[in-house]
Specification:
Oligomer: single chain
Distance between the termini: 44 Å
Shape: globular
Strand order of the largest sheet: 2-3-1-4-5
Number of helices: 3
Strand content: 25-35%
Structural class: alpha+beta
Radius of gyration: 16 Å
Number of strands: 5
Largest sheet: 5 strands, antiparallel
Helix content: 25-40%
Amino acid sequence: MAETYGVVVGAGSLRSSSDGAWRLPHRWTDEGVAVEAAFTGAHLLHVAAAGCVLNDVYREAAGLGITLQGVRVTAGGGFDGEWVSTGITYAVEVDTQASPDEVARLVAVVDEVAEIPRAIRAGAPVQRVSTAG
């Protein structure tokens, strides 16, 4: 089975306590975010998608009047022999008193609006530019 370059991004009550997690400040939570991922390009691509989804869960929950105790997003995906992504999958876990229907609506809205997953889905050119030495 091919490697999936999995990552976990969590905040609030679902924030990792692992010694190996990176800890970063976070606009939406006092405790910050914990990221469990190796430092490779493949993992960082998946961290970008998962981190964006986590941020947008907090943002959209605020707009919908949903109080969150915690959010965890897991993401991963593989690459073919030429290092072309075979796609990214992600899952969202939410710690809240909101109903399952409200959580489902929240996650569906986030799936539509999350900027980094949208950009990856649409594709974008990546170009090297010269830097002044």
